C-alpha cells in the first residue's frame, strides 16, 4: 500500500540574524518516514527536538530546506501556490492554543474553512451544526470562543478541522494545554474520528501517555533526527535507542536512578503474569531482586506491564535470574548504567 | 457681540471643521489602510514577505511623518492648487490633511493588525486560505476593535490638524480661533472655538470607544 504521507530526506535549517551574525539552526536533518492511510501516527520528542517544525513541513506551512513531502504521491515542493492551497484543504490541523477566530461565533468558526472551499452559506451552516453534534457541543453554537473552556475550544477546532472532509488531521500538541481528564476525552474523540472516517492522524506530543492512549505508530525525534519509528507495540516492547528508552521509562515519579548495579527490564503481555513469575524467580534463585519500577500501560487496548529489576551483585545469581525469565518467554533487556 | 452673525459663523465653523475632518479621514484611510495592510503582509514573517516593498513603504511612511504639518501644508500648495483649484478654504485643506494623515494611519493600521494572533493566521493558511482572503476575513475582522480605536485616534488627530490649517486660511473652527483670537484679540470667540473643538474630539472619542467595545467578542457575548 502506498503511503498517504511520505517524508523524504527532509531537512530544515533556519537562518536568522543574531547580533548581526548569520545564525543557523538545523531543526531537522534527513528525516525519512512513511505514514499510511488510517494510521494514528505519534511523533514524540523532547522540547526543541523539531516536532513542530516537522509537522509544519507536512503541509508546507514551513518549507523544508532539503528533501520533500509527498501527500498521496504528490510532491508538495513542486506544486504551484494554488495547487498547494487546494491540497491543504485536505490536510487539516489543530493546535495547542486552538487558534480560533475570537471575533466569530463557534458556528462561524466551523464554517470558515468551508467558505474557502466554496460551500454556500446555507450548506456550510448545516454541516457546521452536524459537526457540533459529533463533537458534542450543540448548545454552544452561537457562543464566542472567549466563553468556552479549553476542552470546548479544542472541540470546536476539531469540528472546524473536519469540516471539509480532510484525509489527514495534523495535531500539534493538541492536548498539552488541557488537564488530564479533558485530554482523555479529546483523545477519545480523535480515536473515534479515526475509526469512523478513516482519517489519518498525525499527533505531535511530548507525552508518552498520549502515544499509548491512541497511537498505532510512533516516531521518536531527537535533536532534529528520527531516532526510531515503528508500531507503538514494537517501540514499546523493544526500544533500541536511548531516546526511545528514556521515553518508555518516563514515569510519573520522574526518572529512575539505576547507577551501579545491573538492572533489567521485563515486559509482560498481561498484568496477571507479573506477581507469580517474580516471586517464583526469587524462590528459585534464592536471592532477592529489587523492584525499581512496575507499571502497566494500556497500548491500543492491550495491557502491557513493564518492570525494572535491580539484580543481585553476584554475577551468577544475576545470570540465573535472567535465564529464568527468558525461559518463561519474557522480553528481558539489560538496562544497566541507565541514567534517566 | 454674541449676535446671530457670530453664532452663525461658529455653527458654520463647526460644519466646515467636521466636513474637513471626516472627508480627510476617509481619504486618508483610502490610502493608509492599504498601505498598513501592505506593511504587515510584506513584513518579515508576514503572509507574503517582501523586503523590498516593505522597506519602500516603510521609508515613505517615515519621511512623510517626519515633516512637520505646517511645513507640509505649505509644501503641498502647488498640488492643492492642481487638485482643488485654490489653496485656501476648508476644501483645499483636505489635500494636505490627507497626505499628512495617510502614513500615520498606515502605522496605526499596521500596529492593529500586528496584534492579531499569529496562530490564527497560521490556522487559516493551513486551511488553504489565500492571502487576500486571510486579509479580508481574518486580519481585518480579528483586529476590528483595535482598528476602530485607531480610527478614533486618527480622527481626533486630523481634527486637531485641521485647526492648525487655520493659520494659512484653512477654514473651520481653527480659522475662526486664529482670526479672532490672534489677529483681533477677541479672546472670547477664540475660547469658544477651542472649547467646541475639545468637545468635538471628546464626542468622537466617546463614540469610537463605545463602538469598539460593543464589537469586541473577546470580553462579553
Ligand atoms: N522560525 C524559526 N526560526 C528559527 N529557529 C526556529 C524557528 N522555529 C523553530 N526553530 C528552532 O528549531 C528547533 C526545533 O523547534 P520546534 O519548535 O520544531 O521544536 P519542538 O519539538 O516542537 O519543541 P516543543 O516541544 O518545545 O514545541 C528549535 O531549536 C527552535 O529554536
Ligand atoms: Mg512544538
Short description, anyone?
The complex is a heterodimer of chains A (340) and B (221). Chain A has 340 residues and is of the alpha/beta class.
**Quick check: average pLDDT of chain B?**
91
How far is it from the N-terminal to the C-terminal residue of chain B, by CA?
A: 53 Å
- Could you name the CATH topology of the largest domain in chain A? Rossmann fold
CATH class of chain B: Mainly Alpha
List the main descriptive attributes of the protein structure presented here.
heterodimer; A: 340 residues; alpha/beta; Rossmann fold; Alpha-Beta Plaits; 2 domains; six-stranded mixed beta sheet; four-stranded antiparallel beta sheet; 11 helices; 34% helix; globular; B: mainly alpha; MetI-like fold; 81% helix; binds magnesium ion
Q: Would you kindly provide a written description of the structure presented here, covering whatever features stand out?
A:
The complex is a heterodimer of chains A (340) and B (221). Chain A has 340 residues and is an alpha/beta fold. Chain A folds into 2 domains: 3-239, P-loop containing nucleotide triphosphate hydrolases (Rossmann fold); 250-335, ACT domain (Alpha-Beta Plaits, 2-Layer Sandwich). Chain A is 34% helix and 30% strand. Chain A contains 11 helices and 14 strands. In chain A, strand 1 (5-18) and strand 2 form a beta hairpin. The radius of gyration of chain A is 23 Å and the shape is globular. Mean pLDDT of chain A is 87; it is low at 251-259. Chain B is mainly α and 221 residues long. In chain B, helix 4 packs across helix 5 and helix 9 runs antiparallel to helix 10. Chain B has helices at residues 4-42, 51-66, 69-75, 77-84, 90-114, 118-126, 131-142, 144-164, 172-183, 187-215. Chain B is elongated, with a radius of gyration of 20 Å. The chains are: A alpha/beta (340), B mainly alpha (221). Chains A and B meet through helix 2, strand 6 and helix 3 of A and helix 6 and helix 7 of B. Magnesium ion binds next to helix 1 of chain A.
Amino acid at each position: 500500500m502506498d503511503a498517504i504521507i511520505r517524508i523524504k530526506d527532509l531537512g530544515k535549517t533556519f537562518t536568522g540574524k543574531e547580533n548581526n551574525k548569520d545564525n543557523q539552526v538545523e531543526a531537522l536533518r534527513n528525516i525519512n518516514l512513511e505514514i499510511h492511510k488510517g494510521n494514528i501516527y505519534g511523533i514524540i520528542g523532547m522540547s526543541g527536538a523539531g516536532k513542530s517544525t516537522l509537522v509544519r513541513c507536512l503541509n508546507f506551512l514551513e518549507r523544508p530546506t532539503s528533501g520533500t513531502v509527498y501527500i498521496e504521491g504528490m510532491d508538495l515542493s513542486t506544486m504551484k501556490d494554488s495547487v498547494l492551497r487546494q491540497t491543504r484543504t485536505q490536510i487539516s490541523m489543530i493546535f495547542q492554543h486552538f487558534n480560533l477566530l475570537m471575533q466569530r461565533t463557534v458556528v462561524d468558526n466551523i464554517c470558515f474553512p468551508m467558505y474557502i472551499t466554496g460551500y454556500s452559506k446555507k450548506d456550510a451552516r448545516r454541516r457546521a451544526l452536524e459537526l457540533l453534534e459529533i463533537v458534542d457541543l450543540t448548545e454552544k453554537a452561537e457562543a464566542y470562543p472567549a466563553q468556552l473552556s479549553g476542552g470546548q475550544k479544542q472541540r470546536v477546532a476539531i469540528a472546524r478541522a473536519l469540516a471539509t472532509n480532510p484525509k489527514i488531521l495534523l495535531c500539534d500538541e493538541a492536548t498539552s494545554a488541557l488537564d488530564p481528564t479533558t485530554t482523555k476525552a479529546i483523545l477519545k474523540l480523535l480515536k473515534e474520528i479515526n475509526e469512523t472516517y478513516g482519517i489519518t492522524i498525525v499527533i505531535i506530543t511530548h507525552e508518552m501517555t498520549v502515544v499509548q492512549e491512541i497511537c498505532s505508530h510512533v516516531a521518536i525525534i531527537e535533536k532534529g533526527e528520527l531516532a526510531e519509528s515503528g508500531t507503538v507495540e514494537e517501540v514499546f516492547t523493544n526500544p533500541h535507542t536511548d531516546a526511545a528508552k528514556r521515553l518508555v521509562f518516563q514515569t510519573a515519579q520522574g526518572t529512575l536512578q539505576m547507577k551501579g548495579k545491573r538492572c533489567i527490564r521485563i515486559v509482560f503481555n498481561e498484568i496477571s503474569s507479573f506477581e507469580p513469575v517474580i516471586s517464583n524467580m526469587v524462590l528459585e534463585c534464592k536471592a532477592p531482586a529489587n523492584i525499581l519500577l512496575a507499571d502497566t500501560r494500556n497500548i491500543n487496548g492491550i495491557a502491557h506491564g513493564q518492570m525494572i529489576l535491580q539484580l543481585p551483585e553476584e554475577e551468577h545469581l544475576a545470570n540465573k535470574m535472567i535465564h529464568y525469565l527468558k525461559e518463561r518467554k519474557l522480553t528481558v533487556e539489560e538496562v544497566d548504567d541507565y541514567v534517566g | 457681540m454674541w449676535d446671530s452673525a457670530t453664532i452663525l459663523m461658529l455653527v458654520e465653523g463647526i460644519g466646515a471643521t467636521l466636513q474637513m475632518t471626516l472627508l480627510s479621514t476617509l481619504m486618508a484611510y483610502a490610502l493608509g489602510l492599504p498601505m498598513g495592510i501592505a506593511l504587515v503582509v510584506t513584513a518579515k514573517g508576514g503572509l507574503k514577505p517582501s523586503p523590498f516593498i516593505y522597506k519602500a513603504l516603510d521609508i515613505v511612511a517615515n519621511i512623510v511623518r517626519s515633516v512637520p504639518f505646517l511645513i507640509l501644508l505649505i509644501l503641498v500648495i502647488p498640488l492643492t492648487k492642481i487638485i482643488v483649484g485654490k489653496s485656501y478654504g476648508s476644501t483645499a485643506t483636505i489635500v494636505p490633511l490627507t497626505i499628512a494623515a495617510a502614513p500615520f494611519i498606515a502605522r496605526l493600521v499596521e500596529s492593529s493588525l500586528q496584534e492579531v494572533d499569529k496562530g490564527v493566521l497560521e490556522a487559516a493558511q493551513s486551511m488553504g486560505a489565500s492571502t487576500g482572503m486571510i486579509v479580508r476575513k481574518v486580519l481585518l475582522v480579528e483586529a476590528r476593535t483595535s482598528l476602530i480605536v485607531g480610527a478614533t485616534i486618527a480622527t481626533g488627530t486630523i481634527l486637531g490638524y485641521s485647526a492648525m490649517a487655520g493659520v494659512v486660511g484653512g477654514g473651520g473652527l481653527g480659522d475662526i480661533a486664529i482670526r479672532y483670537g490672534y489677529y483681533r484679540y477677541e479672546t472670547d470667540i477664540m475660547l469658544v472655538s477651542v472649547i467646541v473643538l475639545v468637545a468635538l474630539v471628546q464626542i468622537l472619542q466617546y463614540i469610537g470607544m463605545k463602538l469598539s467595545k460593543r464589537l469586541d467578542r473577546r470580553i462579553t457575548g
